[in-house]
Structure formats: C-alpha cells, structure tokens
Amino acid sequence: MRKFLGIFSIVLVLVLVIFIYWRFYYVFGEGVKAGELNYMVKKGYVFKTYEGKLIQSGLRSKTPGTVASYEFEFSVEDDSVANVLMLNSGKVFELHYKEYLGTIPWRGHSKYVVDKIINMKEE
User: Fold this and answer.
1) Which of 64, 84, 86, 111 is least surrounded by CB atoms within 10 angstroms?
2) Are 110 and 98 in contact (CB under 8 A)?
3) Nearest to 115, CA basis, from 74, 64, 76
C-alpha cells in the first residue's frame, strides 16, 4: 500500500506540473497586430502590470454600410517596451504578441502578452 501511495503521489504531482505548464506557460499562439495605441497603463493592487489597448480599424461589420472598430487588449511584461508604448500613445504600432491559455497575476490581466514593437509610425 505504501509503494502504491508513493507512485500515485509522484504521478499526481507530475500531472499537476504538466497541467500548470500547459495552462499558464505554454505559448498557444503568436502573431502581429497593427493599429492605433489607445492607452497604456500600469495598474494592479498587488502586482502592478502594464495593460494596453490597440484600436484596429476595419471595414467588415455585421450591419451593412457601417465601419467596425476592433479592439486588441494586451499586457506587457517588459518595462522598456511598456515605457515606449506609454510615451507614444495615439501613434500607429505593429506589435508582436504571444497568446497563452491562461493568465497569471504577475504577467498581466490579458492572455495576450506583447513582447516587442515591430514598427511605430505617426498617424
């Protein structure tokens, strides 16, 4: 019985470690989004994280004859990337991001985490 409990405990811990890695650290997808930076803020009660919103213009809409606006909400881990974004609100950016399956409080409120700025230009 003791041997069974030992093996069961090891398997349970291993499954838990794999689940936590897959849910919170595995990069599910990555890509580039472009648009006008609406805002960039540092906020949080315990963990201060950088949160931002990019407005992407679009012509597709559910209602014919109207223009739709797409919003991309994201978090930023790197202080240097966040500072560049904070100082250039209102400009057009191309941002590279990573998508995770879950959020972690110290990484940000969004499952999309911007890790670098590809391009920045005036509107």
Assistant:
1) 64
2) no
3) 76
3 state DSSP class of 23: helix
Distance CA 116, CA 105 (A): 20
Stated as kind and residue range, the H or E segment containing 40 is: strand 27-43
* Residue 112 pLDDT class (50, 70, 90 cuts): very high
DSSP code at position 110: S
The DSSP symbol for 107 reads: T
Distance between first and last Cα of the chain: 70
CA geometry: angle at 32 spanning 90 and 76, to 5°?
Answer: 65
What amino acid is encoded at 40 in this protein?
Answer: M
d(CA 81, CA 9) in angstroms, rounded, equals 42
| Residue 68 pLDDT > 70 | no
Q: In this structure, what are the phi and psi dihedrals at residue 65, rounded to the nearest 5 degrees?
A: 85, 5
